Amino acid sequence: MTDPVHPMATSPAVPAPAVSEAAGHPVPVTDPAPVTASATEADTAPAADPTTAAEVISSGRALLGIELGSTRIKAVLIDPAGTVLASGAHAWENRLIDGIWTYGLDEVVSGVQAAYAALAEDVRERHATELTALAGLGVSAMMHGYLAFDADGELLVPFRTWRNTTTGSASAMLSEAFGRNIPLRWSVSHLLHAVLEGEEHVARIAHLNTLAGHVHELLSGRRVLGIGDASGMFPIDAATHEYDERLLDAFAGLDAVREVPWDLRELLPRPLVAGEAAGTLTADGAALLDPTGALRPGAVMAPPEGDAGTGMVATNSVRPRTGNVSAGTSAFAMVVLESDLPTAREEIDLVATPAGDAVAMIHTNNCTGDLDQWLGLLGEAAALTGAQVDRDELFRLLFTAALDAPADADGLLVYNYLSGEHQTGVATGRPMVVRPEGVGLVLAPFLRAQLNGAFAALAAGMRVLLRDEGVVCDEMFAHGGIFTTRGVAQQVLADALGVPVAVAESAGEGGAWGMAVLAGHAVARAQGDGAALADHLAQRIFADLELTTLAPDSEGQAGYARWLDRYLAALPVERLAGELIV
Ligand SMILES: Nc1ncnc2c1ncn2[C@@H]1O[C@H](COP(=O)(O)OP(=O)(O)O)[C@@H](O)[C@H]1O
Ligand SMILES: O=C(CO)[C@@H](O)[C@@H](O)COP(=O)(O)O
């Protein structure tokens, strides 16, 4: 495992005050607006106290979190108590090129710059000051996938994202050799897939990374990875907080890798737990983030994390027995375990919190992508009448309309599979809407079926975790863009899982905010504060958090269960569609 390049400073460029002196606010996150480059939307968000906020920013005490999500790169600036000071975002989309879901690394850099520039503009507008220094920052991103580099740091093949489902043989071989589930999207599955396919570049691989790790390296010069993100490359040993040595040996013992000229240990970035030193923003890094040259180097950098880890932080779900759900392009539910699950079930992934504790995850490739396209279509139809509805308002109206339908959506089924769905064993994406004979197309049940479909694969996986494996979870804390409209997707999810679901004001922007909070923890650590992550969150960030919790509705839960039974029974139709519709 490598951690090369630049030496690391241990203190931020601008000294930050102790966390207890921070400019606090009663509720940590006061900005319910989507992160956006738009001045109009930023203006509508409740602002933090202008004097104090401007002072926090101009004195270099603010913390920056960046998250590269599947549809948006988000940047959030907070004070040490977690109050949102400013935000910015840049929209982007994965593309299917030569059968591979990918993003260009040039788009990664320009997208991060655009999100940062939008945030800096938001700072100017809201606080009439310039962002020139940060106490700390951190990068989070979609996890897993395949970023392979040669010895000169050149990318060897286009980024293969988590969404690709081409690694079946490799994933099966690894799951058998390791005696635990190694999902299709994990980096080691992609690596073995490239080996099994005899891909030319394999002999030239010098290191692997995740997207967050790659951006962190660009900003800090250090090749390290938060342990949560690392746990999606290769299994982690929860006791040592390192990659699992026994499984590294098992990998090296595979016939398929006998001939490769590297040892996997040398390819993987070094895992770090939250609070461990992960470098500082270099001069090159500052110039990359802010090409205007206004931003100074030196800020403490937190270990880069995956969006699962930042989701756990954003929902204060890092202690054993806590559960959380992240729902956007994909969806994943996670429960922090008291001990490793003695199971190799393919529905369940085992990952780690940013502090290194074991987590059971139910992941689905598809959640909101197809729903977005349907709602976009309805928006286009509305536009033909001359109506001008903004996207958030369109979502609010249509989500709310879904509440008028019965939970079983009158039997209307939606398979939202834009891409293959490993959770339900569907190889390739063929989005489908189907209904029984005699059932008409009516708006409310159609919309309810869309929301049911968004959570269907997740609900199927959670049946396995909660019912078959007996994992206990009293409440799920949810975040992600689908919860931006209050109370609708939240109720559908509670009905789908049969568990109360809580959301906070920050629900729509959880990941970037969670990463900024991790940066605050890293700064506190760099200043000699030894608080463990869970205590930092409980005492300094979440003490006053206001949550809204919705319990499953008995009719809603029974209706969703009926709907899901029909959905699962008809899955062979969806699989067949993949074979027949080419
Ligand atoms: N106002 C809204 N109401 C409900 N859902 C919304 C709203 N705005 C966005 N969304 C949903 O949020 C999703 C994006 O969620 P996000 O967590 O940002 O995902 P990702 O990280 O995958 O880009 C969109 O695909 C959309 O379905
Ligand atoms: O695979 C995982 C988590 O295991 C995610 O990183 C991946 O689904 C991408 O998530 P987003 O939908 O971009 O939030």
TrEMBL record:
Belongs to the FGGY kinase family. GO terms for molecular function: ribulokinase activity. This is Ribulokinase. Residues 7-49 have a biased composition (Low complexity). InterPro entries: ATPase_NBD, FGGY_C, FGGY_Carb_Kinase, FGGY_N. It comes from the Bacteria. Gene3D superfamilies: 3.30.420.40. Residues 324-522 form the Carbohydrate kinase FGGY C-terminal domain. Residues 63-285 form the Carbohydrate kinase FGGY N-terminal domain. Its EC number is 2.7.1.16. Pfam families: FGGY_C, FGGY_N. Residues 1-49 are annotated as: Disordered. Keywords: Carbohydrate metabolism, Kinase, Transferase, Xylose metabolism. One of its GO terms (biological process) is D-xylose metabolic process. It comes from Brachybacterium nesterenkovii.
